[in-house]
């Protein structure tokens, strides 16, 4: 059985990280249908991906579904979104697909849980809307993606990391849109490290 598994593995298509130390595949998630072409898509994270300035910003790669076969290749050819800088890198991604605005395109929910604000550390989460066309701006910044409606309530308190984990949680309020949970498991509001979960409806 082991010999058979080894031989089978040699025939499977593979994706390799772009650089040493990227740790591609730390998270792999079903993304739903991001571009609404009828094929489900996949998100792959490389949490220590480095930008041109050698900053570890992290990246989320978009592997679009298709009818033709995949071949082994580097992820360098895939579309990706990266963190803004080393202080606002890519963290967790939702493990379940969701459509937050009900437009028929699945969206991408990402955390950047090490946002630095002055000398304090706070978390932040991003909602990237699915669309038919490619993402022309790869770096997630307020000017390029506007954080898509994130207000101060979605920033963590000092030394609290809202967005340690993020997830679409289905349509909890029956609005026809996917709702969101942001987890801050070290929040101290109710007591030391009691944790907190933010439920966000109609983001």
Describe the model.
The chain has 203 residues and is mostly beta strands. Helices cover 7% and strands 26% of the residues. It has 2 helices and 13 strands; from the N terminus they run αββββββββββαβββ. The protein has helices at 2-11, 142-145; strands at residues 15-16, 28-32, 41-46, 59-63, 73-74, 79-82, 108-111, 115-117, 120-122, 125-128, 165-168, 180-184, 196-200. It has a 4-stranded antiparallel sheet with strand order 2-3-4-6, with no helix packed on it. Strands 11-12-13 form a 3-stranded antiparallel sheet, with no helix packed on it. It is globular, with a radius of gyration of 18 Å. The termini are far apart.
Q: How many DSSP E strands? A: 13
Question: How big is the Rg?
Answer: 18 Å
Mean pLDDT: 79
Strand content: 25-35%
Alpha plus pi helix count: 2
End-to-end separation:
49 Å
Question: Which regions are unreliable across 5 or more consecutive residues at pLDDT < 50?
Answer: 145-155
In order across it, which strands form the biggest sheet?
Answer: 2-3-4-6
What sequence of helices (H) and strands (E) makes up the elements?
A: HEEEEEEEEEEHEEE
Query: Which sheet architecture does the biggest sheet show?
Result: 4 strands, antiparallel
General shape: globular
Helix fraction, binned, reads under 10%
Structural class: mainly beta
């Amino acid at each position: 059985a082991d010999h058979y598994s080894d031989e089978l593995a040699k025939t499977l298509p593979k994706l390799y990280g772009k650089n040493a130390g990227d740790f591609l595949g730390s998270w792999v998630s079903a993304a739903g249908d991001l571009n609404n072409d009828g094929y489900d898509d996949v998100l792959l994270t490389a949490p220590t991906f480095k930008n041109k300035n050698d900053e570890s910003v992290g990246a989320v790669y978009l592997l679009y579904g298709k009818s033709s076969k995949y071949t082994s290749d580097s992820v360098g050819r895939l579309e990706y979104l990266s963190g803004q800088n080393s202080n606002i890198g890519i963290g967790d991604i939702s493990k379940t697909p969701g459509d937050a605005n009900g437009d028929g395109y699945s969206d991408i929910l990402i955390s950047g849980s090490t946002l630095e604000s002055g000398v304090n550390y706070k978390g932040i989460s991003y909602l990237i809307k699915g669309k038919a066309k490619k993402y022309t701006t790869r770096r997630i910044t307020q000017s390029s993606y506007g954080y898509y409606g994130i207000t101060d309530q979605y920033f963590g308190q000092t030394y609290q990391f809202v967005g340690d984990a993020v997830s679409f949680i289905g349509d909890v309020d029956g609005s026809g849109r996917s709702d969101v949970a942001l987890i801050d498991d070290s929040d101290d509001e109710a007591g030391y490290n009691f944790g907190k979960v933010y439920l966000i409806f109609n983001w």
